[in-house]
Design a protein that fits this description.
The complex is a heterodimer of chains A (319) and B (203). With 319 residues, chain A is α/β, with parallel strands linked by helices. Chain A has 15 helices and 13 strands. Chain A has 2 domains: 240 residues, P-loop containing nucleotide triphosphate hydrolases (Rossmann fold, 3-Layer(aba) Sandwich), CATH 3.40.50; 66 residues, CBS domain Like. Chain B has a single domain, classed as MetI-like (MetI-like fold). In chain B, helix 6 runs antiparallel to helix 7. Chain B is elongated, with a radius of gyration of 20 Å. The chains are: A alpha/beta (319), B mainly alpha (203). The structure holds adenosine-5'-triphosphate and magnesium ion. Adenosine-5'-triphosphate binds next to helix 1 of chain A.
Chain lengths: 319, 203
Amino acid sequence: MNSPAGAPVRFERVSVRYSGSQTEAVDAVAFDVRPGEFVVLLGPSGCGKSTLLRTVNRLVVPNAGRVLVGDKDTATLDAVQLRRRIGYVIQAVGLFSHMTVAQNVAVVPSLLHWDRARIDARIDELLHMVRLDPARYRDRFPKELSGGEQQRVGVARALAAEPEILLMDEPFAAVDAIVRHALQDEIAEIARRLGTTVLFVTHDVDEALRLAARIAILERGRLVQYDAPLRILTAPAAPFVESLLDTHDVVRRLSLKCARDAMQPPRDGAGPDVREDVSLREILNDFLRGAATVHVLDGNARRIGSLSFGDVVAAVASS
Amino acid sequence: MPPDFWAHVRVHLGLAGAALAIALVVAVPAGLFSAKRAAARPLVLGLVNVGRVVPSLAVLTLLLPVWGVGAKTAIAALALLAIPPIAINTDVAIRNIPMAVTDAARGLGMLPRQILWRIEAPLAFPIVLAGTRTAAVEVIASATLATFIGGGGLGEYITTGLQANDTHLLLVGVTAVALLAIASELAFTALLQFAGTKQRSRA
Ligand SMILES: Nc1ncnc2c1ncn2[C@@H]1O[C@H](COP(=O)(O)OP(=O)(O)OP(=O)(O)O)[C@@H](O)[C@H]1O
Ligand SMILES: [Mg+2]
């Protein structure tokens, strides 16, 4: 099934102040998300990540500024129609406990009045996509699933009607590290394959580095940096970003590991050579200069492996 | 067994059933309203509880000058009695639905009425049904009092039995009411269980 390519999202000085609150939960945030791009909203608890995310499907209405989806101001669109084009996954999953897995996944297609056969085929397709065997899982109820399986159903439900945009609010926070890594890999792969634009909320720096094409870092409602993971690591734009990385010890972990710890089997392709004992932190400079691949040499100048930026992040995040 | 026994049972159940039906029509929307409007909750639940704090006999006495004797007054008094458990359970049932669930429903693009009928109603149903079970037992037991205002029902055996010192008649009345109450409790429990298994085994 061919999915429409993802829609672009644009935040134009978006501000949200909840009634009864003295301060802005989101304060004049402005940035662009390209079609099909995977953007992570990162920041500590209460910084406004969920609020900003929810302006996209108008569960939260900005007090000022505009949110554009597919170049249209969402204020001019019908909120319910808009939401049916946007997948939404939340931490608490929010599966409907009185419905089976199949019925949960079918919610949006039914709202869109797809015919029965098309819905049935779509349910099986989606369950395969999130690695749940339809024969075994279709007719189960959510309480008969593990936390990770529930999250998978949540993802399948959000993808059901081939959304142009996928909003994910700390979707993997409640599962253990191994399942989380598996789900991260799967969602990255699915999003890439479908070309869906993804806005993904987390307060986990490793998760952000692993998944994001670009990371939007929020501090008390304000956007402090919006950049690729490599730039965030090598050129933090504010003390707040440094301290965020510090708290998660990312830089130290980069310094502690060397090329040998992160390298993959040698690959072809142009790229600078580094010695196997050079720290990952130093290697980031090569990526900064535009290298896609770095080759690792042993003491005898023999090529023993290759490294991409993704390999570096993976090595750091899995420690 | 008195010759008019089944007629009395029918009247008794008729009174109870009518009262329960009216109570449902009033109490479910009231409970829904109080669940959705936190500001209105004390007022709504306070009003609803009138049925609980005012004894049925007092209600009957109050209604008598308005509607006179007869089934209508009796049903009104009984309905008042049945409203609180249903309204309170509806309120609790709706408020107990996790925020994440209604949030997800809205986020997926459901209209408010679709959220009500497809999500909230099925999730609240068992708890509302349990409230109705409580109300039914209360109403069946209290319908015995209808006889005081000419409403008929099994209470007649009890009053007549007491007046005529007829222990047999008295016992028929008391036993029949008790059995009806137990039967209704069992029927509702079975219904609840059925609803539960249906939800689990639908395949
Ligand atoms: N419905 C609401 N009413 C009033 N204030 C709210 C509401 N939702 C959030 N807030 C406040 O707005 C601010 C931002 O909240 P938000 O939920 O967007 O943060 P977050 O970054 O998602 O945090 P977390 O990581 O804990 O989920 C917080 O100060 C929060 O208390
Ligand atoms: Mg949040």
